[in-house]
Amino acid sequence: MIIVHHLENSRSQRVLWLLEELGLDYEVRRYERDPKSMLAPPELRKVHPLGKSPVIDDNGCIVAETGAIVEYLVDKAGGKLGAPGNRDDFLRYRQFLHYAEGSMMPPLLALLVVGRLGILGKPAKAPVQKMLDTHLDWLETELGSRDWFAGDAFTAADIMMSFPLEASRARGGLDGSRPNLTDWLERIHARPAYGAALARGGPYAYA
Asked: Cβ contacts of residue 192 below 8 Å, gap of 6+?
């Protein structure tokens, strides 16, 4: 049984969704954020020294970092939802699997910090938003010629991309002016496995 150490309103929702898509059995151990700091609780440090989520425990094998967990689970499921056979699609799959955290999340996190600084963060807001808009504009064109990020088929790359785009819609300015991205969000939210993951994980602000 795979145990998912799941933090509310966090990137770990993607792991639950992937497990539902793959049809793998799992147990959720849910943690709540500190209501003042919004940080993960100290109990997570007992699972992994960084005290972060997601972390999975697969019969004693501890895996941290969302991208690494996604690759681990796709491999465990025999490659289901993994890299397509077509070389171009394969390269896009690998690109977006890493892009989601490596390039897309930093400006989103910067916007979150700037927002919490109040008036002190105001000078930085416009430059950070411009940086994020560059990403959103590019992603909008990427989905102009295909349904999914890697190609014509839904893959784990789409699951990785879900959190930054959901967060962008919640606090980063993503709206109907980028129809390809909003349509993609509506389609992933309509997937039965996405709904099943929400039921298992509890309230999730970005759905």
From this structure: none
* Predicted pLDDT at 153: 97
Q: What integer pLDDT is reported at residue 41 of this predicted model?
A: 82
List strand residue ranges (DSSP E) for the chain, in order. 2-7, 26-31, 55-58, 61-64
Q: What is the reported pTM? A: 0.94
Q: Which two tokens stand for residue 72?
A: 């681990």
Chain centroid to CA 19: 13
What's the pLDDT at 33? 83
Segments of the chain with pLDDT less than 50: none
Determine the pLDDT at residue 187: 98
Judge whether 33 and 9 are in contact, CB under 8 Å. Answer: yes
Q: What is the pLDDT of residue 10?
A: 86
> Distance between CA atoms of 30 and 158, rounded to whole angstroms?
24
- In the structure, how many helices (H) and strands (E) does the chain have? 8, 4
Instruction: Give the C-alpha separation, 31 to 36, whole Å.
Output: 15
Nearby residues of 58 by Cβ (< 8 Å), 6 or more positions away = 2, 3, 72, 76
Rg of the chain, C-alpha, whole Å: 17
What residue type is assigned to position 117 of the chain? L
Spatial CA neighbour of 197 closest among 32, 1, 11 = 11
- Give CA–CA dist 39/205, Å, rounded: 15
The conformation of residue 41, written as its DSSP 8-state character, comes to: P
